[in-house]
Amino acid sequence: xxxxxxxxxxxxxxxxxxxxxYYVPNYKPREMILDHGLGAKIWDLxxxxxxxxxxxxxxxxxxxxxxxxxxALEKQLKKLWHTSxxxxxxxxxELAELLVESSNFAKRxxxxxxxxxANEAAIKLARxxxxxxxxxxHQREIVTFHGSFHGRTLATVTATAQPKYHEGFEPxxxxxxxxxxxxxEEAVNAVVNENTCAILVEPVQGEGGIIPSxxxxxxxxxxxxxxxxxLLMLDQVQCGMMRTGKLFSHWHEDGVMPDTVSxxxxxxxxxxxxxxxxxxxxxxxxxxxxxxxxFGGNPLATAVALAGFRILKSxxxxxNVEAMGQLLRAELDVINQSMQxxxxxxxxxxxxxxxxxxxxxxxxxxxxxxxxxxxxxVLVAGPNVMRFLPPLNITEDELHHGLARFRNALEAFSQGxxxxxxxxxxxIKRLMKSxxx
Length: 437
Ligand SMILES: Cc1ncc(COP(=O)(O)O)c(C=O)c1O
Prior knowledge:
Blueprint (H helix, E strand, L loop, with lengths): L2 H4 L3 H13 L11 E5 L2 E4 L4 E4 L2 H4 L8 H11 L12 H14 L2 E7 L2 H18 L8 E5 L8 H6 L16 E4 L5 H7 L4 E6 L2 E2 L5 E2 L4 H12 L2 E5 L24 E4 L10 E6 L19 H14 L2 H25 L2 E7 L2 E6 L7 H10 L2 E2 L1 E2 L4 E4 L7 H19 L10 H12 L1
Parallel strand pairs: 3-15, 5-6, 5-7, 7-10, 10-11
Antiparallel strand pairs: 1-2, 2-3, 4-12, 8-9, 11-12, 13-14, 14-17, 16-17
């Protein structure tokens, strides 16, 4: 039994053993049972608290138990849970209107349940659009980028360019072409041609290491699409919904009009929902009977998404993302000045990556585990990048406290300890003070 197992209650140990016994082993959950949350804090079954700087991978963008969301959910809970798309419901229609009218480009929306499903709908729409225009199947290629991530269904995993996601799942669907480098016009020119029916791209690559598109790149892609009659499809599953400081992340660049935008994650603030927003040119492509999903637009999910969206698009959240994004970067800089542990801090708004120094390459997951032991939940983006996606309404105090614990974890890791020292009372105050510089 490891040291940390000594700190686990009997129920925690029993549940973990059952999880390990009964789940398909495609995930490797941390050895704790998360039980409840409030704001940017979360508690496990044994009462240990964590500052949540990952927000369930960019999902809980208003933290845990936001009172407005709880109220919206409770209200809908007592009315109607599910109808299927054979029927209309009020929150789903209201959400459709608000999303479309806020987007500055979309005319209509298709609701589904996840990011992969939103991208899957985009892929099908692009193919159908090309087919409607008389293009043969070999003229319906979709271009994506090295370093991308678009989901785990067979089509979206094929859209995800890296072979490690494909191995063993062959035969893969055809018609995907990969630009060998993100932010690289030449790489795009090499694969986009008259057979291209769409470019699918993340305005900020997430899983690929938190890499924002360089200024002018999305506009370049728009021109390129127009040149060959292709659609520009933006995957904003991770970077959308104010995560980068703008409601839609292509708003960082003037004059980029996408044809589709895929959303999920933060849209539901914790409930599963996805959406594909479609622009004028393609608003009628998915005709009656051409596509669908049973749970899409489920009123429990849309009631919460509607309440959440109204808050996420507010000037207060926009200002908080700006301020807390700067604070997060500043405090990571302070840590880096004293520890020299990162070679780069990248990202936008509250979507931030810290690239580990070469000696720590491959260690991101071990550091994330040390963070958990230190009471802070930090994600990774690949083996070399620590990824921060805190709730967008995180307070200065919560962020500061989380980063003090992060620093405690890094120090323990650099000293080769198996557990961080207990960071309570004066010790955490000293760490917090050191971050303020
Ligand atoms: C950019 C991007 N697209 C698509 C997906 C897939 O979303 P989901 O896991 O909801 O299917 C993700 C998930 O991490 C993502 O980051």
